[in-house]
Amino acid sequence: MEASNPSIESLERTAIECRKSIIQMIHKAGAGHPGGSLSAIDILVALYGTQLNFDVSDGNFPTRDRFIMSKGHASPAVYSILHQHGFLQQSDLDGFRKLGSVCQGHVDMKWTNGVDFSAGSLGMGLSFGIGTALAARLDNHSYQTWVMLGDGETQEGQIWEAMMAANYHELNNLHVIVDRNRIQNDDFVNVQMEVGDLASKIKSFGWEVKEIDGHNMQEIVEALQWSMISTSPSAIVAHTVKGKGVSFMEDNPSFHGKAPNDSELEQALEELS
Predict the structure, then answer these.
(1) Mean per-residue pLDDT, 17-27
(2) Sign of torsion, CA 119 245 254 179?
(3) What is the distance, to the nearest Å, from the Cα of residue 176 to the centroid of all Cα atoms in its chain?
(4) Among 52, 237, 254, 264, which is least packed, fewest CB within 10 Å?
(5) Helix (H) or strand (E) holding 204
């Protein structure tokens, strides 16, 4: 599918449906990571809706754009948008985190149609993205590589090695989005190990950088367009809210990796209706 031009209102409606799917699949599984999925989903909706070139009938066609979800525990966000675009069925989402399901707890390109990266330990996705961006150049293809990082993930040294390498290789077909929700596995990032002014740090490695409100759909769409015309590797630092859209999950570290119970599911779906 070539990038299209849906209205902001249409994208916002899709984001609401994705949030419902995220909450429902994690509740059904009794496990998962709602907080970081909800903080990322507005960005994924805009990316898949306006920029990514993909083909639902052939998830592996060679010139497709690549999306690398480096913070792979946010798999419910990925599965929800893949479902919206026809890669996955509702029955696939219902099997989230079950043995043999195509929707595993972390994204896995060997299991799931439309997934381009098998996630594991944090910090690896940007290096993988450099590989796909270099491959496009070597094969004389114009496809783009997009990588989503968590802000806690930027505590990994491999991220900064990759930042340096991307600038050295002048990879203007490589685009990073940092989900700056300020919460990681156990607590707030500034409690665990503060990462500081990420925009300035990334810029110091020779990247072009833009900071946005990661829940303002208009800003997201415009930032993605900006990234496409960059002459250097580009990064969007998206300031987000962990658990966005569900009041009791917002800015709540306990919902980094906890499923809602029955009453919480009911409340969440009511708030999203």
Answers:
(1) 98
(2) positive
(3) 10
(4) 254
(5) helix 198-204
Task: Please report which confidence band the pLDDT of residue 186 belongs to, taking 50, 70 and 90 as the band edges.
Answer: confident
Enumerate residues 6+ apart whose C-beta is below 8 A from 265: 23, 24, 27
How far is 117 from 131, CA to CA, in rounded Å?
11
Q: How far apart are CA 199 and CA 218, in angstroms?
A: 20
Question: Residues 6 or more apart from 16 whose CB is under 8 A from it?
Answer: 245, 272
Which overall architecture, per CATH, does domain 8-272 show?
A: 3-Layer(aba) Sandwich (3.40)
User: Helix, strand, or coil here: 71?
Assistant: coil
Helix 217-228 to helix 34-50 angle (10° resolution) is 60
Angle between helices 8-29 and 262-272 (to 10 degrees): 170
Percent of the chain residues topping a pLDDT of 90? 96
Residue ranges of E strands in the chain: 66-69, 145-150, 174-180, 208-213, 234-239
Sign of the CA dihedral running 143, 208, 35, 41: negative
pLDDT digits (tens, 9 = 90+) for 49-83: 999 999 999 989 999 999 999 999 999 999 999 99
Q: What is the pLDDT of residue 191?
A: 92
At residue 2, the pLDDT reads 53
pLDDT over 70 at 155, yes or no: yes
Token pair of 92 as six digits: 């696939």
| The one-letter amino acid at 189 | V
Q: How many CA atoms lie within 13 A of 190 on its CB side?
A: 6
